[in-house]
Amino acid sequence: MSAVLQLTDVVRVHGEAPHQVQALRGVSFAAHPGELVAVMGPSGSGKSTLLTIAGGLDSPTSGAVTVEGVDLARLGQQGRARMRRTSIGYVFQGFNLIPALTAAENVALPRELDGVAPRQARAEARAALEEVGILDLADRFPDDMSGGQQQRVAIARAVIGERRLILADEPTGALDTETGEEILRLLRARCDAGAAGVLVTHEARHAAWADRVVFLRDGVVVDETGADRAEVLTEAAGR
Amino acid sequence: MSVKHALLALLEQEPMYGYQLRAEFEQRTGTTWPLNVGQVYTTLTRLERDGLVGADGEDAEGHVIYRITAAGRTEVASWFTTPVARTQPPRDELAIKLALAVTVPGVDVGSVIQQQRSATMAALQDYTRLKRQAGSGDAPSDLAWSLVLDSLVFAAEAEIRWLDHGEARLRRAAVERAAAAPAPAPSATAPTAPTTPTTPTTPTTPTTPASERSAR
């Protein structure tokens, strides 16, 4: 099955010559439909850089990133922005909801920005909120919700419009154990329904929800568990 | 693990025979700690000798039914109110292995840590998969099983955190040694980790060249 996300030999260098920092030093990995991949590593291992590059928020110094077969480097700034609205869903530790908008409006926003009629965007938003179990909170503002509820809104916003790549950066970081587990259950369910997910975390208990765990150290992948590594490597080589 | 107390606790609910006790035990704890029926009957014999249970006749199929005695109830109550003694830390072998790895010359400590971390992570993934399958039923036995799984999950997580921590300390030690090497004057850059090279019992101050490779 072809990968939804494929990183090939991705290198990312920050800064100029004498003070360069190599955040990523040649990382290759793929996320397939129905698969949740966890990236684990300590602070400074490059895991957040990897996620921003996978989501088209940052570009690699060298190497290639393809999402649903499209090389992100070949898309212009606008093309990448469109890709982020239609194919890639982001979930952050800090939820990043807009406080002046209700839950439903937050979720509908990417669709409205994409030119979908407001009425339809609103209907899709309600469906997405129902999927994460909080349709009854559709008209609430973020400040009137618990952290777990806000993160559910953020997940609904990340999956609306049938986006097939979900990128999550420490999505349970601000939540208690049990609420965090519910969020992982939702991410897992979305992947079981056919999406590809990448979960960046430093907590082993959360990474364990993934099909595959990639260990990152100093910008390189040092090990993987639960992987069909051969398949991943041949795919990278065959590109 | 105290089979004796587990059986007594089960008998406090109602009188049962051996096979029944085993089934009830496994329903609550999964097959994480399998009991063989021989072990159950030996334990019952011992409990009967000590006056904690009594044989209470046979059922229609000839199974001997055991009933808890008053002394048995007192024993169960005191089991539940006494903390489990932590005399034998469960990760003994790994702790010993790592303590030796950092002191025996020629061991690549970094790969010892990474191999263990991968193996423990694979186990953690298995437990999490079982948790997902277990569902969220409200029956007491579902809750019991899911608590046992949580216990395995948290223990594996703790082991991985400890390995991460050990790796970070090894790296810091290697950096400090490298910084201290050109100028033998004591380094003042790391107040949180006073280096005590004269103390032979500090296990996190590896002295082998191999351990430096762990900081790749």
UniProtKB/TrEMBL annotation, chain A:
<dbReference type="InterPro" id="IPR003593">
    <property type="entry name" value="AAA+_ATPase"/>
</dbReference>
<dbReference type="InterPro" id="IPR027417">
    <property type="entry name" value="P-loop_NTPase"/>
</dbReference>
<keyword id="KW-0813">Transport</keyword>
<dbReference type="Pfam" id="PF00005">
    <property type="entry name" value="ABC_tran"/>
</dbReference>
<dbReference type="InterPro" id="IPR015854">
    <property type="entry name" value="ABC_transpr_LolD-like"/>
</dbReference>
<feature type="domain" description="ABC transporter">
    <location>
        <begin position="5"/>
        <end position="234"/>
    </location>
</feature>
<keyword id="KW-0067">ATP-binding</keyword>
<dbReference type="InterPro" id="IPR017871">
    <property type="entry name" value="ABC_transporter-like_CS"/>
</dbReference>
<protein>
    <submittedName>
        <fullName>ABC transporter ATP-binding protein</fullName>
    </submittedName>
</protein>
<dbReference type="InterPro" id="IPR003439">
    <property type="entry name" value="ABC_transporter-like_ATP-bd"/>
</dbReference>
<keyword id="KW-0547">Nucleotide-binding</keyword>
<dbReference type="GO" id="GO:0005524">
    <property type="term" value="F:ATP binding"/>
</dbReference>
<dbReference type="InterPro" id="IPR017911">
    <property type="entry name" value="MacB-like_ATP-bd"/>
</dbReference>
Automatic annotation (TrEMBL), chain B:
<feature type="compositionally biased region" description="Low complexity">
    <location>
        <begin position="178"/>
        <end position="216"/>
    </location>
</feature>
<dbReference type="InterPro" id="IPR036390">
    <property type="entry name" value="WH_DNA-bd_sf"/>
</dbReference>
<dbReference type="InterPro" id="IPR018309">
    <property type="entry name" value="Tscrpt_reg_PadR_C"/>
</dbReference>
<feature type="region of interest" description="Disordered">
    <location>
        <begin position="177"/>
        <end position="216"/>
    </location>
</feature>
<dbReference type="InterPro" id="IPR036388">
    <property type="entry name" value="WH-like_DNA-bd_sf"/>
</dbReference>
<dbReference type="Pfam" id="PF03551">
    <property type="entry name" value="PadR"/>
</dbReference>
<dbReference type="Pfam" id="PF10400">
    <property type="entry name" value="Vir_act_alpha_C"/>
</dbReference>
<protein>
    <submittedName>
        <fullName>PadR family transcriptional regulator</fullName>
    </submittedName>
</protein>
<dbReference type="InterPro" id="IPR005149">
    <property type="entry name" value="Tscrpt_reg_PadR_N"/>
</dbReference>
<feature type="domain" description="Transcription regulator PadR C-terminal">
    <location>
        <begin position="91"/>
        <end position="170"/>
    </location>
</feature>
<feature type="domain" description="Transcription regulator PadR N-terminal">
    <location>
        <begin position="7"/>
        <end position="77"/>
    </location>
</feature>
